[in-house]
Every structure is written in C-alpha cells, then in structure tokens.
Design a protein that fits this description.
By secondary structure, this protein is an all-alpha fold. The protein is 68% helix and 3% strand. The radius of gyration is 23 Å and the shape is globular.
C-alpha cells in the first residue's frame, strides 16, 4: 500500500524542492515554441505512411508471408536504433552554436528528397489477380496469386521499397532526436510534481497526427485491391506523395516556430568536454540499470508471432479500412491513456502501473487469438478488439518508461541520454521480432497452406505457438525490480549510485552494437535464409 500512495502533501513537496532542475520555464503556447508540438504532429503522419503501411502494402498488395512482413517492420524501423549516434552528434557537434534546429532542418530536407524519389519510382503490379463482382453499390472480389511472377521476385521488389522507406526513416529520426533533446529541455523547466506533462502533451499530439494519417489511409485504400468492399480508391503510390508534402510544411516550422538558445558557454560548446561528460553518463550505474530494464522489458513484451498477420488476412479477413479504423481507435485510446497517467498517476508507483497494464494486455491478446484460432468466433472486429481495449493501458505504460529520461537527464546532454535509453528500447523491439521468427520456425505458421487447410491439427499448432509467445512476453516480470518506483526514487538512485569501470562501459556499447549487427544481418538476409531454417 505504501508503494502506491500518491505524493500530495505540501510539506513533502517542499522536501523535494532539491529535485527541481535549474531550467527556465517554457511558455508552450508562445508562437516561437509551439512549432515543436506541430512537428511531432508531422512525425505522426509520416509514421503512418512508412512503417504503418506494412499490412496493406507488403501483405495485401505484394503478398509477403508473415515472416517477411515482420522483417519489413524491422528494416523500415531500423533507423530508430541509430538514435544514440544522432544524440551524440547533436550534443557534441553543434552547428554555429545550435544543437537542435540545424539537424532538424537537415533531417526534413533528407525526407523531402527520399520521398520524392519514392513517388517517382515505378510501382509493380499487385501480386494477386482479382475477379471482381459488382452489385451496384459494392465490389466483392476473389483473389489468387499472379502466376507471371514468383514469390522470390516479389520478395526482391519488396526489399527495394523496404530500403527506400528505411532511408526515409533514417532522415526522419535525425529530426526526431533533435526534437526529443529540445523536448527534454522543455520538460526540465517543469517542477517535480508537474514534470512529465510536456512529454505527455507532445506524444498526445504525435498520436493525433497518426490518427489523421490513419483516417486518410482508411478511406483511400478501402477498395478491392486492398481487400476492401469499394470499387475504386487510391493506390499506395498515391499516398506516398504525403511523405513529400509533410517535410515541405515542417521546414518553415523549424525555422520560424521553434526556439533554441545559442550555446555561448565554451564549456558546453567544447567537443572533448561534451564527449567526456557523455562517457561519464554512459558509465553511470543508474543509467545502466534503466537501460537493462528498458532493453529486456521491450525484448520480451515485443514478441510477435508471424501467425498474427496470417490470421488477419486468412481467417478473419481484416480489410484495409477496418485495419486503419483499428489504428485510429487504438491511437485515440493510447492518447487517453497518456493523459490519464499525466493527470492521476504521475506520482504513483511506476512498477505497479507498468506490470498491471502489461500483464492485462498480454492475457487479453492471448485469449483473442485462441478464440479465433479454434473457430469459436471468427470476426475481424473481435480479433482486433483486444488491441483497442488495451491501448489505453499501453499509453500509461509508455509514458511511465519515458519519464525516467527526464529524471536522469543532465544539462546539455539531453539528446544523448534520450537517445541512449530509447535506442536500447528500440534494439530490444526489433531483435524481438527477429527472435519471434526463429522461435516459431518449428510450428511453420507463416505459410498460406496451413490456414487454407484449417484442420484441427493446424489449429492446435497455431494455438500452442500463441501460448509460447505469451509465456515469453510475461518474462519481463523478472526485470521489473530494475524499474524505479517513481520520480523521487529515480533521483535518489541517480545521486546515490556511482559509476562503473571503463571496461563495463565498453561492454555495454559492444553488446548494443553486437545485437544491432546481428539484427541487421538477419533482417536483410531473411528471405534467403528462411527456406534453409525451415528445412532443418
């Protein structure tokens, strides 16, 4: 009970005054500051039309199997594992005394150029041929694979688009890291009891951007080419023009609606001094503890079976419209979850919040999968409902993790710290998807034939692998003690724990680099090594 008591007493707040940072409070509604919030909206829109198009583009249009669809998400999202390097560049190599705005501009210009190239690239025909029946109001179609092209040919085409979208994200993340560093500086201007609200508002606005993008996707791709009921609509290549328009709008926002103070103090403008301070940050035992928790908790919770994408397409027939509508409702409830955490749970026990939301989400997801697998109820709305229901809880979980960064940050090292912890988080997520593909190999859950047969043995196999994945996801509990209970404990941990040796610091970096290299190798060669692994 004591762990979950809310800190509300004035005398307690006075005792904790020493935990407030010496930063100027930011007026978020000022024209010179509000641009950062709009830029996060732009990030949300771009996310939808890059790695959130994987189901419609890579599965429904190009016909990739479940494993390769997982790989597409990993490759496109890989630049998010570069955040630590961007953070180091931001903090150690300011341009004309500015650490954030120049890199934000460079990133958006890169997005503009790559997006233009994607738009002018010739799009291949669909992997499927459609026989369309028009009843006057709606179109119903049956599809079969186009015999003129092989799966290997379309896998090769898909890899080309994965690389281009990877490159787009490469520049997008450059802007995001600079924005994150500025956002942490904003957050440091809040007092202890309010600290975290800036992050909550910013991520809520980013989610609004994702909702707007998902609405556009829902109504433009809802035709038979993407398993929808309409007789007409736009193609994916038409939507790619959006990722060109957004950078055009974002660049003026960076220039005129975002404020950053020029670094006049030579102490903080000296590269060698900044690198030395960054290395000291990396060796901090408190940072190491949070990094281990972030990596391991994400590693286990992010396990996702390739069967999920196959069930969506083969058994419950999720249309592009319903998939996008699910994204919209999920994002709305995710935003509500972050706002609930901001208003009521900022000072509650983070371990309790994190564990309860994660366990409930994993359990509900397993039940939904088993109900569909054993044909108790096969309905696309039911299958996606668990994701919608648990999104509020995941919003709380997400903000809980991010608040650690503000509490651990140091002046003029905001970008490095934010990137360091989120990089460990992202590497865990992507490595988890690759391990998921490997673990389910004995179950052979990625091929169309198993779902077309739909025999009792096939259902038992799919159900068993779902239970295995859920059991693995629950293993995050073993690392929960590494998560501080709240803001005060995080500050205490930061001040009381010393530093590790240089050797341990190098081991941390080497481990992250090794996991990253293995992930890159597996993801870029999976379509070649997958047949070998399945034949072992």
């Amino acid at each position: 009970m004591e762990d979950v008591m809310k800190i509300t007493e004035d005398d307690e707040a006075n005792k904790l005054e020493s935990y407030n940072f010496q930063e100027n409070r930011i007026n978020y509604t000022d024209f010179r500051n509000i641009g950062l919030f709009f830029l996060y909206f732009c990030i949300g829109v771009c996310d939808v039309f890059t790695f959130k198009l994987t189901y419609e583009f890579f599965r429904l249009y190009l016909g990739l199997d479940g494993e390769l669809n997982n790989i597409s998400e990993v490759i496109i999202s890989f630049p998010w594992t570069f955040k630590i390097f961007y953070g180091i560049i931001n903090d150690c190599f300011p341009i004309r005394g500015y650490r954030r705005k120049p890199y934000m501009i460079i990133g958006w210009i890169g997005c503009l150029l790559v997006g233009a190239f994607v738009c002018f690239k010739d799009m291949p025909p669909s992997r499927y041929t459609h026989v369309v029946y028009n009843n006057g109001s709606f179109c119903y179609s049956t599809k079969s694979k186009n015999p003129e092209f092989t799966d290997e040919k379309y896998a090769s085409i898909a890899m080309q688009y994965m690389f281009l979208l990877f490159l787009y994200q490469f520049f997008l993340v450059m802007s995001v890291v600079a924005m994150d560093g500025l956002m942490v500086k904003y957050a440091r201007g809040e007092n202890l009891k309010e600290r975290g609200k800036a992050q909550t508002y910013i991520y809520a606005i980013r989610t609004v951007g994702e909702i707007v993008g998902a609405c556009i996707k829902a109504f433009t791709l809802n035709w038979y080419l993407y398993s929808g009921p309409w007789c007409f609509g736009l193609r994916v290549e038409d939507l790619f023009y959006i990722i060109v328009v957004v950078p055009i709008c974002a660049i003026p926002m960076v220039i005129f609606m975002t404020t950053e103070t020029c670094i006049a103090n030579k102490k903080f403008n000296n590269v060698s001094v900044t690198i030395s301070r960054a290395w000291g940050l990396l060796r901090s035992k408190a940072i190491l503890q949070v990094m281990i928790f972030s990596f391991m908790a994400t590693l286990f919770q992010s396990f996702l079976s390739p069967a999920d994408i196959m069930i969506k397409d083969k058994w419950v027939h999720v249309t592009s419209f319903v998939n996008s509508a699910c994204t919209i409702f999920t994002d709305i409830l995710f935003t509500i979850g972050t706002l609930i955490f901001s208003k009521y749970l900022l000072n509650y026990n983070w371990r309790v919040t994190f564990a309860s939301t994660a366990i409930f989400s994993i359990t509900l997801n397993l039940l939904s999968t088993l109900v569909v697998t054993f044909d108790i109820v096969r309905n696309q709305y039911l299958y996606l409902s668990d994701e919608i229901v648990t999104s509020t809880l995941r919003g709380m979980n997400f903000i809980c993790s991010l608040l650690l960064i503000v509490e651990l940050s140091e002046p003029h090292l905001e970008g490095i710290l934010y990137s360091l912890i989120t990089t460990s988080n992202n590497i865990g997520s992507y490595f988890s998807l690759l391990l998921s593909n490997i673990i389910v190999i004995p179950f052979h859950v990625s091929k169309d034939t198993r779902y077309d047969r739909d025999s009792p043995q096939d259902r038992q196999t799919i159900g068993l692998q779902a239970c295995v994945i859920a059991a693995i996801q629950l293993c995050f509990i073993f690392f929960l003690p590494l998560l501080p209970k709240g803001k005060v404990e995080t500050q205490t941990l930061k001040k009381s724990m010393g530093s590790t040796s240089n050797l341990q610091g190098f081991i941390i970096l080497a481990t992250l680099v090794l996991v990253f290299v293995v992930s890159v190798f597996l993801s870029t060669t999976w379509y070649k090594i997958s047949p070998i692994l399945h034949n072992l």
